[in-house]
Amino acid sequence: MKQLFLFLVTAVAFISLPINAEGQNSVAAGTVKATGLKDSSPRPRMRDYGVRTGVMQPGPLNAITDVKGVSVGHVTLVAGDSIRTGVTAIIPHPGNIFREKVPAAFWAGNGFGKLAGSTQIEELGNIETPVILTNTLSVAAGIEGLVTYTLQQPGNGDIQSVNAVVGETNDGGLNDIRGRHVTPAHVLEALVKAAPGPVAEGNVGAGTGTICFGFKGGIGTASRILPKSLGGYTVGALVQSNFGGVLQIAGVNAGERLGRYSYKSQIEEQSGGIRVGHPAPDGSCMIIIITDAPLNERNLERMAKRGMMGLARTGGIAANGSGDYVIALSVAPGNLIREYASGTKPYSPTYTPTYLHNNECSALFMAAIEAVEEAILNSLFAARTMTGKDGRTVEALPVEKVVKLFPLVKDVE
């Protein structure tokens, strides 16, 4: 039933798109190809090579979907020589999110970017839609897609306001970003494709055209499971990596060893201060953290702050032109904020959530830091070399060189 409903939602959105001069829907008439997950061909992840970060145990999938009920979907747009972009949808739980809102908080490590819906998160401490990630100039399409998705869900026939949550990074280095090739129909398609289980990484979805530390960035994910003595909770992270600095991998100064890091030429005084040959540190990073631990919005904000510590462990510097945002969500079932459709019974003006004490949060903070760090590194390990706009080629992380920086790891075949 859910699949049929989502198919109909997508069809409605597609039909409602503007008609071009040839009398066709803009998506159908354009050259954009929406590629499925099997077309993205990601490389092995960091742990596949024996490289480890942190001390806590990953979940079975080492992904944000290790948190029960979380699903992720991608739409990857690759066409011609300059369209390299897409959409990633994160659905926190399988119910009606507008009617079962999710406790939430966000933190801006550096606010040079756009996170639609952030003021309501700050004001009310919850979200009422899935989270959409895309490129900088497609935030409006993300909002429109989420509004359509929410209005068309069963039980939402009376609502007249939707606060959509959409984040972005600027993929204009490889993508014809001014072409605004992402449409609301692509957003709905990503929501339809969202599923539990393994999450595609690298050059997929919102990470299709991103660049990180001068190498090809992308989507990455990871998770941590607390020991039973610390609650047994799961913390998952998903990132859209598109930023700069000096790459650190498991404590190794990999950026310096590989000879690629921000401001390299100036630091080494090789060019008399002329800016040549170094990767720009600007970009952005969107970080989504989800846990099944029963945290309120105050401690979720504290967890979101730790997401920036995970970014820092990878060598990111939150540059002036970087929009680095963290959203933290708790999907503990007993704490979902239940709204009631008009006329439904029973209605209660109060609810009684259960929250962890402050002193129970430290292990969760540690798990969030480790999961974010590894998610960013997975985005680099999984990404492939890409050529895009203006013939620019961004090389993938040279894994064969990276693994040689670590003793006792698996050789790259």
Question: Explain this structure to me?
Answer:
With 413 residues, the chain is an alpha+beta fold. It has a domain at 43-68 and 94-126 and 199-338 and 352-405: 4-Layer Sandwich (L-amino peptidase D-ALA esterase/amidase), CATH 3.60.70.12. The chain has ten helices and 17 strands. The chain has helices spanning 2-15, 26-29, 118-124, 139-151, 184-193, 254-258, 264-267, 297-313, 362-382, 399-402, and strands spanning 34-35, 71-79, 83-91, 100-111, 115-116, 126-127, 131-135, 165-169, 211-212, 215-216, 219-225, 234-242, 283-291, 322-330, 337-338, 386-387, 393-394. Strands 4, 6, 11, 12, 13, 14 and 15 form a seven-stranded mixed beta sheet that branches. A six-stranded mixed beta sheet has the order 1-2-3-7-8-5, with helices on one face. It has a two-stranded antiparallel ribbon with strand order 9-10. β16 (386-387) and β17 (393-394) form a beta hairpin. α1 (2-15) runs antiparallel to α5 (184-193) and α8 packs across α9 (362-382).
Helix coverage percent: 10-25%
Major sheet attributes: 7 strands, mixed
Shape: globular
Instruction: Tell me the number of strands.
Output: 17
* Structural class by sheet pairing and helices: alpha+beta
CATH topology of the domain at 43-68 and 94-126 and 199-338 and 352-405: L-amino peptidase D-ALA esterase/amidase
